[in-house]
């Protein structure tokens, strides 16, 4: 029997009100104690990029206009990586406890994306007061809240085609 290392706890969904996580019913008890937290870390699977050809890509042309010409995948936030795992910190805008819907202010995942785990966001563990970043991205906003008005379009190359060895 093959050992199952990860199984989704739910998936990203969307409706007219916005994005939310729909938990599987068996995981509803996991919500106990989440009240009072304003944000969560959502660990999710880049399911649209779970192909062997993508998992073998180790470096790529820079997706960032001011970045080095070639970058290792671990220096990017690309969905193309050896294990297509993602993490997004997101504000909770509401929880429907009885049916396991966690409404989010934002998440950079598509509807239908598998959610692997959730962790409460706590500044004492999850926030780095003065993170060090390379000079080419040091002008980026300091927080999710301040990034809404930032011109992200000016920061990315249109098509960074992945290359592999």
TrEMBL record:
Gene3D superfamilies to which the protein is assigned, alphabetical: YaeB-like (2.40.30.70)
GO biological process: methylation
Range of residues in the leader sequence: none
Molecular function terms from GO: methyltransferase activity
Keywords: Methyltransferase, S-adenosyl-L-methionine, Transferase
Key word Methyltransferase present: yes
Domain TsaA-like per the UniProt entry, residue ranges: 6-130
Superkingdom, natural source: Bacteria
Record keyword Nucleotidyltransferase present: no
Similarity annotation: Belongs to the tRNA methyltransferase O family.
Name listed for the protein in its UniProt record: SAM-dependent methyltransferase
Protein source organism: Diplocloster modestus
Lineage of source species: Bacteria, Bacillati, Bacillota, Clostridia, Lachnospirales
